[in-house]
Amino acid sequence: MKVALLQGGRSLERGVSIRSGQRVTEALLDLDHEVEVLDLGPDLVGHLDKHRPDVVFIALHGTEGEDGTVQALLELLDIPFTGPGTAACIRCMDKSLAKYTLREHGLPTPDWVTYTEAAIRDFGAATTFGSAVKRVGLPLVAKPASQGSSLGVKVVTQLEQIPGALITALSYDERAMLETWVGGRELAVSVLGDEALPVVEAIPTDSNTYDFSARYEIGGASFECPADLPDGDAAEVERVALAAYEALGCSGFSRVDIILAEDGPQVLEVNAIPGLTETSLLPQAAEAAGLDFNAMVQRILDLATA
Amino acid sequence: MAASPPPRRQQTRAKDLERYASLFAKRTRVMRSSAMRDMMEITARPEVISLAGGLPDTSTFPPEAFAAEMTRIEKTAVAEVLQYGPTEGSMLVREQIVEVMAAEGTRVDAIDVTVTTGGQQGIDLITKTLIDPGDVIICDAPTYPGAIPTFCSYEADVRQIEMDADGMRMDLLEATIDTLEADGKRPKFIYSIPTFQNPGGVTLSLERRRRLVEIAREKEILVVEDNPYGLLRFEGDPLPTLYSLDGGNYVVYLGTFSKILSAGLRIGWLVTPTPIREKVVLGKQAADLCTSTLTQDFAGHFFQSGRWREYVDELTAIYRTRRDVMINAMAEYFPHGATWNKPQGGLFIWATMPDVLSTEDLLAKALSRNVAFVPGPNAYVDGRGASSMRLNFSGVKEDEIIEGIRRIGQVAREMLKLYETMTSTDEMKLPPVEREDPS
How confident is the model at residue B434 (pLDDT cuts 50, 70, 90)? Predict the structure, then answer.
């Protein structure tokens, strides 16, 4: 099959994207596909239209690659591509929209409020911080509405910390959220096709509960797959994850991040195109399900071209 | 746009990760990657104006001078430059290093010079030679960001001493040494860039240079003087190197051709007392046997021709103009409350934003406008420097410097305005928020 692989791009996750792309490219070559590696640039559309690959493998993360920009172009060009479609990407990338959608489907997600930079700058939204805190409680998590990594995320324990935390979050996106901080086990459920893969648990090695930066790096957390969960919890986590995936309209593959609190699972966000590096959670989960990396990549291609 | 796919290689499976993780040495835990470093990958895109690098402007090197050296090598030295060389470095290069150091008034004997593969290897070798896990290294605050991973990989206990306009503060240095002594610890060495410091841009005053050398003698602590930029002076009188004040008893000297000729040739050097040199040479043997014979031959003959003096003068003139362009742009575009220094030489300006701004966050915002710099915390081991940034003026053309500074100033002013809006409500009439402990 003639595969065009998109990697790099202009988002803050360019580095991860290049590593994802390299790993997937190796797998595609192993599977005897013909691969052309492309970065986002002015000749992207012209090049794709001229060469008409059988399928585009999108190994992009973050803005433009994961937010529906590239997906909409490919739908227009009528070229099949991997992962979720435009609408699902838009919903997942906007964490606030994703949470509204989850709520509409009766799915559990922590309380939150969203602020745009414009609302704060131009319409006096800062006078509502007190009521925001009343609604979501303390501690809360301030985060940009549309970043995939831990960048720009801060935990707020007092009202006075909100301006500083929002300045940080708004450095990464024009919208920021204040979300109830929920303690519990950190789980990631990858979905491939319509099947939930074994649950991965991130167990932080640092004792600091509020340190997010180390979680998803080797040494910062240890990962257990499948997570050691009681049968009832595992089934409930899986049910909620699949329901979230469907509610947001995902297809192909995605990853649902969940906190398993005392009163049950809470969906934090859904990553439309999660990392595909050797250390990423989706490949780990696929392997636990008996799919090695190559088989996983082939399955993603099959889902895109079915 | 299209790149050829990488070759096939052995694949890692998820279950291998744990196996590898159990094999890693403990020191690799401090070498982990970060989302912040990933972020810097965008600077590779051509549309990004990067004020983040520490690059000399090699576009000014005359191609005919390059061709002349290569022709000479082709005619007279092919077999020699394709061969191994002595671990200490070629005698020609060591003799030229003596000349270059003499230009700054520092007299050394060629026999005491060890050629290294860039100044960075010099830092690595001296640390490897002197530091056991837990040993204390004292350095400037902020310090050269590239030294930190080296110190950490040898599991050093790094203590940073604040600088002011005259460089490292000697009162704080002495207090730190006293505190360490009280804990039964003696620092192994003090690492400092006394002239046009990276990233601070400041120069250690003559008085403090004398005092630092005295402290080294009194306390029997080595000083590692890193001097990559000393010859790139735009104004003011040259100051004696620490090495020349001390005579090479307690001061180890680190030099490099990277900023005065080429970073790509990878030639630096160490000047050390003989007992240390012997260990350093053993360490270098273990690391790479010798620095490239080809690049040593190139550099040795180029310096021997004497043309380097003129070339350094040219570079200095270019960098002086660029520094002035950057300073003027900062005065025009940076927000009220931002501060910066005017370095008398070197490659960098250190700027500090009003303290409610974190430069790591500001970098994210600046990258969305296609401009990059180094956030201050990269120059500290403990997360300090949150509102500061290092700006490079040597590797970027004047119009791009102005545009880059304009964009940084714009995003900084936007964020400050937003912060003021948030904190001026009745509910929020509060002093600036203290940032969380970044540890």
Answer: very low
* CATH architecture observed for domain B85-305: 3-Layer(aba) Sandwich (3.40)
Average pLDDT, chain B: 91
The residue of chain B nearest to residue A10, with distances taken between CA atoms, is: B42
In which band, very low, low, confident or very high, does the pLDDT at B353 lie, cut at 50, 70 and 90?
Answer: very high
pLDDT bucket at A207, cuts 50 / 70 / 90: low
Q: Which residues contact A284 (CB under 8 A, 6 or more apart)?
A: A200, A223, A225, B14, B17
Average pLDDT over residues A220-233: 86
Q: Concatenated DSSP letters for A261-286?
A: ETTEEEEEEEESS---STT-HHHHHH
Residue B190 has pLDDT above 50, yes or no: yes
Cβ-based contacts of B437 with chain A (< 8 Å): none
Residue from the list B13, B44, B422 with its beta carbon closest to the beta carbon of A287: B13
Give the gap in angstroms from C-alpha B274 to the nearest C-alpha of chain A.
Answer: 41
The whole-number pLDDT of residue A217 equals 44
Angle between helices A69-77 and A44-51 (to 10 degrees): 30
Q: Is the Cβ of A154 closer than 8 Å to some Cβ of chain B?
A: yes
Q: How far apart are CA A82 and CA B268, in angstroms?
A: 49
Cβ atoms A68, A90 nearer than 8 A:
yes
- For tokens 């708004």, the residue is A170
pLDDT at B17: 64
**pLDDT confidence of residue A218:** 43
Q: Which two tokens stand for residue B10?
A: 């052995």
- Say if residue A59 is in the same domain as residue A70: yes
- pLDDT per residue over B389-398, tens digit each? 999 999 999 9
CATH for the B26-55+311-428 domain, from 3.40.50.2000, 3.90.1150.10, 3.40.50.10770, 3.40.190.10: 3.90.1150.10
Q: Using CB atoms, pick whichever of B5, B17, B427 lies closest to residue A279.
A: B17
Bridge partners (DSSP) listed for residue B345: B233
How far is residue B140's CA from residue A25's CA, in Å, rounded to a whole number? 44
List, in sequence order, the alpha helices (H) in A157-280: 162-170, 231-247
Q: Which of B121, B92, B110 is nearest to B285 (CA)?
A: B121
Whole-prediction pTM: 0.89
Contact of A219 with chain B, judged by CB distance below 8 Å, is answered with yes
> Is a pLDDT exceeding 80 seen at residue B302?
yes
* Alpha carbon distance A37, A5 (integer Å): 5
Amino acid code (one letter) for B225: E
Q: ipTM of the predicted structure?
A: 0.87
Determine the structural domain holding residue A261 and report its residue range.
Answer: 91-108+183-305
Find out whether B212 and B242 touch, Cβ atoms under 8 Å.
yes
Contacting residues for A61 by C-beta, under 8 A, at least 6 apart? A9, A11, A13, A16, A17, A20, A148, A273, A275
Q: Do A219 and B24 touch (CB under 8 A)?
A: yes
Residue B55 phi, psi dihedral angles, 5° rounding: -90, 135
